[in-house]
Amino acid sequence: MNFKKRGLFTGSKAVCEEPSMPEKGILAVWGSPGCGKTLASIKLAQHLASKKQNVLLVLCDMTTPMLPCVCPNSQVDTERSMGNVLVTEKMNQTLIKHNLTTLKKYKNLVILAMRKGENEHSYPAPTQEQAEALLTALRETAPYVIVDCSSYISSDVLSFVTLMLADHVLRLANVDLKSVSYFSGQNHLLRAENWDAGKQYKIASNVKPNQTQEQIYNSIGEVAFKLPYSTELEGQFLAGTLLDTLQMKDGRAYDKEIARISKEVFGC
């Protein structure tokens, strides 16, 4: 298991590209439906774990639990449910650790998610106070926390609170009218005093080879990063092997951009 007596993770000394201290904290990954939020979240977590950085990945989708898409059951050491955490009145690290999914291949990566077969009705809906308490406890549990937020922030308390309290937000959008329409209908929900639009990184996702910079700008505006469409990544998603290494040309291009994002956000 990933637990040891004095900490959550096992593994060797952290290795970053530069000796400067990396910036730790909570990263929210958010965007329009079908834009690849879960793919980006998992690949960012995988990237950090490959560098021996301890990372906790939170998968917020309660309608369709995404854990089966991450890796086969044979690669899972322990599988527990996020639902047991969200219903508690007394949030603490022990409770979180007890309900994490741990992995055989990545000892620096753990996952908090709903199990296969569960849905948003399997547990009572969390309150805003419970969601805030979870985010506070997550900060104390792991140096890097990546939260794969739901697109439906009007009904998903945890995703909405995460967007408010996260240190950084990746805002993913496909280069199409559906994404434009989504954000025009959702942005008014984020007009809160503690919403800092400046902490967002706008990302064009699933960018096809024939989509030009001008087309991207005309559709969704200026972006910080462009995640290319990858047939290999789509294949991993369909097969439930998202923690496998990307080998093909389009997969390597995706990984390269993930590394750039990690360097910008976390410094590692």
Structural summary, described in words:
It is a single chain. This protein has 268 residues and is of the alpha/beta class. 36% of the residues lie in helices and 17% in strands. It contains 10 helices and 9 strands. The chain has helices at residues 37-50, 67-70, 83-86, 93-98, 128-141, 157-165, 177-186, 213-220, 231-239, 249-266, and strands at residues 25-31, 55-59, 76-78, 101-103, 109-112, 144-148, 168-174, 200-207, 225-228. It has a 9-stranded mixed beta sheet, with helices on both faces. A hairpin with a 5-residue loop joins strand 4 (101-103) and strand 5. Helix 5 crosses helix 6. It is globular, with a radius of gyration of 18 Å.
Concise description?
The chain is α/β, with parallel strands linked by helices and 268 residues long. It has ten helices and nine strands.
List keywords for this structure.
268 residues, alpha/beta, nine-stranded mixed β-sheet, 10 helices, 17% strand, disordered N terminus
How is this fold's topology laid out?
Layout: E1 25-31, H1 37-50, E2 55-59, H2 67-70, E3 76-78, H3 83-86, H4 93-98, E4 101-103, E5 109-112, H5 128-141, E6 144-148, H6 157-165, E7 168-174, H7 177-186, E8 200-207, H8 213-220, E9 225-228, H9 231-239, H10 249-266
Parallel strand pairs: 1-6, 1-7, 2-5, 2-6, 7-8, 8-9
Antiparallel strand pairs: 3-4, 4-5
Helix pairs in contact: 1-10, 5-6
Strand content: 15-25%
Q: Estimate the mean pLDDT confidence.
A: 88
- Individual helix count: 10
Segments where pLDDT lies below 50 for 5+ residues? 1-12, 17-21
Q: How do the strands line up in the largest sheet?
A: 3-4-5-2-6-1-7-8-9
Secondary-structure content class: alpha/beta
How far the N terminus sits from the C terminus, by CA atoms, comes to 25 Å
Helix content: 25-40%
Largest sheet: 9 strands, mixed
Q: Radius of gyration, Cα only, in angstroms?
A: 18 Å
Order of helices and strands: EHEHEHHEEHEHEHEHEHH
